């Protein structure tokens, strides 16, 4: 893929707006983006195509999962699945998916399941019309938000440092828990099916996105810091404004996405700094803020047009 094409795709991945509110994952590195809009391919061309069985394309509505278990013995058994995603074993990873329920029936159905063998993460709609999350084999209902047939985005973020998982629905945190993931090696596929119970999602999938980070950080600390750093405009052309709360960080630098050597760097002199970007070539850049005393770091991606 040409560098210009990669730039355009990453720009869309980081900046495309939608009718579905989304959790900010700009501080992580994109691994794959399956739009599922008339294609099973990864738009970043980094991962193998997804596999679809009896899951037809429906234009801008992505692909349709008919709710029929793939091994039910019926000819219309349905499966939507990635192949192996090794980055799900990174110190920190995130998964987001846009989905829409077809109908609410009397079945507990998975919307998304992570892991074929252990099914250690997932999001569900329950038979009594409640959302639910799955973590290490246990299902936890989310009673305060009722399911409907609108488009939603679920996001799962896990950090191995503090063994904490965060679940978001339409950018609102709905659940968190601290415990290490229980799973085998290479149990790293994402699908619409729970093989243990023989249940399959009924509705539409689109825009499955996977992110990761090799940076070891506490997820709680990281997300608190992420909210304390604001970066705008993004995309940018001539300058970018960075603001922080509580003056937590004292050093900053800008690097190319693929090269760790700082292009621009400096020290915080106030709660807001302005960084000139006019001389930077178009591309994806990393802004890194550091607390030199504690060693705490936060990174954010931005686009130079």
Please give a structural write-up.
The chain is built from two helices and 23 strands. The chain is mainly β. It has two domains: 211 residues, Jelly Rolls, CATH 2.60.120.200; 86 residues, Immunoglobulin-like. The strands form six sheets. Strands 1, 3, 5, 10, 11, 12 and 16 form a seven-stranded antiparallel β-sheet that branches. Strands 9-8-7-6-13 form a five-stranded antiparallel β-sheet, with no helix packed on it. Strands 20-19-22-23 form a four-stranded antiparallel β-sheet. The two termini are 19 Å apart. About 2% of the residues have low confidence.
Give a brief outline of the structure:
The chain is mainly β. The protein contains 2 helices and 23 strands.
Question: Keyphrases for this structure?
Answer:
mainly beta, Jelly Rolls, 7-stranded antiparallel sheet, 5-stranded antiparallel sheet
Sheet with most strands: 7 strands, antiparallel
Tally of strands: 23
The structural domain count equals 2
Q: From the 3D coordinates, which CATH architecture of the largest domain would you assign?
A: Sandwich
């Amino acid at each position: 893929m040409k560098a210009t094409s990669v730039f355009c795709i990453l720009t869309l991945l980081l900046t495309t707006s939608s009718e579905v509110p989304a959790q900010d994952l700009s501080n992580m590195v994109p691994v794959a983006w399956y739009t599922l809009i008339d294609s099973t391919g990864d738009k970043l061309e980094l991962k193998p195509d997804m596999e679809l069985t009896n899951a037809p394309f429906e234009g801008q509505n992505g692909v349709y999962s008919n709710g029929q278990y793939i091994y039910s013995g019926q000819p219309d058994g349905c499966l939507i699945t990635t192949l192996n995603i090794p980055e799900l074993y990174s110190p920190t990873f995130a998964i987001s998916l846009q989905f829409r329920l077809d109908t609410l029936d009397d079945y507990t159905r998975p919307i998304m399941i992570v892991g074929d063998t252990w099914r250690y993460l997932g999001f569900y709609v329950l038979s009594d019309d409640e959302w639910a999350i799955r973590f290490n084999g246990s299902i936890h209902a989310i009673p305060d938000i009722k399911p409907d047939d609108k488009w939603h985005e679920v996001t799962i973020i896990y950090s191995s440092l503090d063994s904490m998982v965060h679940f978001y629905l339409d950018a609102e945190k709905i659940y968190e828990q601290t415990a290490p993931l229980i799973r085998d090696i290479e149990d790293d596929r994402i699908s619409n099916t729970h093989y243990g119970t023989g249940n399959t999602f009924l509705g539409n999938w689109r825009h499955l996105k996977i992110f990761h980070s090799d940076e070891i950080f506490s997820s709680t600390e990281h997300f608190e810091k992420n909210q304390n750093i604001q970066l705008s405009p993004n995309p940018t052309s001539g300058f970018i404004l960075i603001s922080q709360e509580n003056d937590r960080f004292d050093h900053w630098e800008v690097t190319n996405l693929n090269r760790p050597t700082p292009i621009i760097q400096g020290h915080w002199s106030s709660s807001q700094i302005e960084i000139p970007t006019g001389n930077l070539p178009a591309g994806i850049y990393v802004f890194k803020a550091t607390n030199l005393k504690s060693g705490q770091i936060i990174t954010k991606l931005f686009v130079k047009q």
